Amino acid sequence: MIAVYLAPVYIIVCLYLLCRLLCWLRSCHEWTGKKAVRMAIIVVYSFLALSILIAFILPPSGVRRVWKLISNYWLGTLLYFVLVVGIADLLRFMLKRISFPKKEKLFSETGHAIVGGLCALIIVIMSGVGIRGAAHVRETNYEVEIHKDAGDRKNMKVVLAADLHLGYSIGIWHMKQMVEKINAQHPDLVVIAGDIFDNEYEALDDPERLQEILSSIESKYGVYACYGNHDIDEKILAGFTFARKGKKQSDIRMDEFLERCNIRLLRDEYVLIDNAVYLYGRPDYERPGRGIEKRKTPEEIMENLDKSKPVFVIDHEPRELQELADAGVDLDLCGHTHDGQMFPGNLVTKFFWENSCGYLKKDNMHNIVTSGVGVFGPNMRVGTKSEICNIQIRFR
Questions:
Q1: What is the structure's pLDDT at 20?
Q2: Which residues are registered as beta bridge partners of 360?
């Protein structure tokens, strides 16, 4: 319902930006002030501004996929449109009230055209950088040391991925990159820490091809996953969800898809890897999913485990870090934050999470949060990266 309440704000912002755009274009050339040209600009701008709603109301189809892609690019561009124009107008408001040399030139038609052109260039560059940043999967390396006995095993290579968000923006191209980079590491274990899907199973561009790609992950001890807050069947409008009756849970086709991909889903349960290392998969903190009313506490997780052996946990959201450390967990692997995904979001998330991205040592526990492979909403990354994490673990 939040999306409905925010709709008037969105409309006002879009109208203001349209007025500023038309005003700038008129100062650039008299041709852009003609009625036919202005109408054409208004029509195109209106379609972009309404692309979010159009994509939402269309039934699943190729047409909807196109509109969803358009709306995702629009959302990212809109963010920098608002930021750049907002800063420019604030400066204009302040400068108009002080005296300085050549002030009249700055506020002339030519000055307006130049400043507007500079703003447009910044918006285009930021959007272009964002699109490129979201398109390429990179790698981040970590080394951790766990002071526990893992039998004959002295080390283990684990690859962490999270936040694939398979859907309208993320598909075959990204998964091919991810799998190639994973296989190049020759990992002992691969874990996926939630948000594998982007709320809608219908959003998958080619389920069979995606299954073929994900099934080709090479891992000595297999591929394991837990679900995140977006691994459910739920409609999303501009990042906001809608209240509905009943428990929010995954589409059964999501579960079946993972099974066909040879990815084992852990639902508040553990496996013993090579009779030496425990791997525990937690359900999501916000939406634990099918068959789980309340997820187990860190203490309950460790009740039936041999604490002399290393214990790895995959948990979508990096929460309860101190509780997990106190319970005896050795390695906690998470995602969810996207590291803010787009500047200035990467600055804001640091205020909400103890470890918003990267590595944190919590007593004897190592916590690693990945910025994720995919994106949510805007199909852009600025100041952050799409990544997998290669983790070299040594046992002492």
A1: 94
A2: 367
Looking at residue 28, its pLDDT comes to 85
Written in H, E and C, the secondary structure of the chain is CHHHHHHHHHHHHHHHHHHHHHHHHHHHCHHHHCHHHHHHHHHHHHHHHHHHHHHHHCCCCHHHHHHHHHHHHHHHHHHHHHHHHHHHHHHHHHHCCCCCCCHHHHCCHHHHHHHHHHHHHHHHHHHHHHHHHHHCEEEEEEEEEECCCCCCCCEEEEEEECCCCECCCECHHHHHHHHHHHHHCCCCEEEEECCCECCCHHHCCCHHHHHHHHCCCCCCCCEEEECCCCCCCCCEECCEECCCCCCCCCCHHHHHHHHHCCEEECCCEEEEECCCEEEEECCCCCCCCCCCCCCCCHHHHHCCCCCCCCEEEECCCCCCHHHHHHHCCCEEEECCCHHHCECCHHHHHHHCCCCCCEEEEECCEEEEECCCCCCCCCCCCECCCEEEEEEEEEEC
Cα angle: 256, vertex 260, 265; to 5 degrees = 65
Average pLDDT of 335-359? 96
pLDDT of residue 61: 86
Nearest residue to 274 (alpha-carbon basis) of 156, 392, 145: 156
The number of residues making up the chain comes to 396
- Kindly report the pTM of this predicted structure: 0.93
Residues 200-209 pLDDT 10s? 999 999 999 9
Query: In the predicted model, what is the mean pLDDT of residues 127-146?
Result: 97
Q: What is the largest CA-CA distance in the chain?
A: 79
